[in-house]
Amino acid sequence: MRFYAAADEDHKAQKGNIYENRIRLLMSNSVLFYSLAVLIISCAFAVVFLRNIFHAGLFLLGAFLGVAGIYIALFNYFLAAVQALVYSGAIAVLILFGIMLTQRHYRKEDPSHNAFKWIAFVLSFGIAGFLVDSFRSLKPGSIFPVKHLLYQMGMALMQTYAIPFEVISALLLVALLGAFSLAREKEDL
Amino acid sequence: MIGIFHYLALSAVLFCIGLYGVLTRRNGIAVLMSIELMFNAANINFVAFSYYFKGIHFISGEVFPLFVIAVAASEAAVGLAIILSLYRNKKTVNVDEANQLRG
Amino acid sequence: MNTTGYILVFLAVGILFVIGNYFLSSLLRPFRPNAKKLATYECGEEPFGTAWVQYNVRYYLFAVFFVIFDVEALFLIPWAVVLKSLGAFAFVEMLIFLFLLFIALIHVWKKGGLKWV
């Protein structure tokens, strides 16, 4: 394909980027991955277990930022920026707005989880244990650094995934109109 | 040394925490938040596979999270609008109490 | 010492700086609270009610518009990177993309969704 060849030439032209190498050295260290993993998992536990829904929303923000860190560890800086901007900047704010709009009838004594919580606990964490155990036989895998990832992503988005790209536009249209007509006050329907 | 196993394990655990939240939370907004956690777990999987196993179509794994993020944004917007509408009509956000359509 | 070491030292010094300054100022400052001092600071206004008032649903609508057009902007960035090498094809693709969202914007505008009442 054409764009791989072009990116390869650019790769040769920009050999020996010392800054990139330094970050790569940093990320190969496991301290960063484990601290990000602890952040994400503890924030996710807080999201599903906390009674106060507003605090759960704030921990959701922390989990999103941790996932942005994971994207940096995987050298996709664009996705990390998108994660920080769209997930923590827009979707988490939207969810916090939704929480603030629905808090008037929040009663302290109501249970926050339903009656199936022990069955669901065993089921979901059983699945997690099974999955992690089955991944253990995987080889570490070899890393091929890619230069100009954003360029290649744009090429794939515009050529290989042209149709899904347009479908996303239609999806956003439907979501905007649907959310608008559902959330509006009754009188101006 | 961090390999593909670590990312897959992180993603699996995150997914199952989200699954637990979807199955058990009574507040509809909390269910939506758990779904967002599951979306994030899937995205980590895509990017990790694309980073460690580079085939000819490795770039798909880097592009697909963009689509997932767009779908997640639409889902959050419409889902929260449904919950707001439920709240306006029944003064509750608990998904257990939204049972008017039950036969 | 490698780069991770520098970052860890930076983190430790930053955390210690904050904690140490709080500790030092707690040794030095006087502590005489009263009701006026403990009141929530709202730029000189008298605070009333709790922070948990019912918000208007219009805030939510504008947040939805922000989210949708934020997602649109995220697709604009990879497009802008490859526009020069792909030329008219990518341009037409993005025109279709923007046109569909423009229809949605016009519809919302006509229905009065952008007015703040």
Brief overview:
Chain A is mainly alpha-helical and 189 residues long. Chain A is 74% helix and 0% strand. Chain A starts with a helix and ends in a 6-residue tail after the last helix.
Structural class of chain B: mainly alpha
- Low-pLDDT windows of residues of chain C: none
H-E string of chain B: HHH
The N- and C-terminal alpha carbons of chain C lie at a distance of 60 Å
User: Termini distance of chain B?
Assistant: 56 Å
Share in β-strands of chain C: under 5%
CATH architectural category of chain C: Up-down Bundle
The number of helical elements of chain B comes to: 3
Mean pLDDT reading of chain C: 85
Question: How many domains, in number, for the residues of chain C?
Answer: 1
The SS-based structural class of chain C is mainly alpha
Structure description:
Chain A has eight helices and no strands. Chain A has helices spanning 2-13, 18-28, 30-49, 53-73, 77-101, 117-135, 149-158, 162-183. The radius of gyration of chain A is 22 Å and the shape is globular. In chain B, helix 1 (4-24) runs antiparallel to helix 2 and helix 2 runs antiparallel to helix 3. Chain B is mainly α. Helix content of chain B is 76%, strand content 0%. Chain B is built from three helices and no strands. Chain C is mainly alpha-helical and 117 residues long. Chain C has a single domain, classed as Methane Monooxygenase Hydroxylase, Chain G, domain 1 (Up-down Bundle). Chain C is 71% helix and 0% strand. The radius of gyration of chain C is 26 Å and the shape is flat. At the A-B interface, helix 3, helix 4, helix 5, helix 6 and helix 7 of A face helix 1, helix 2 and helix 3 of B.
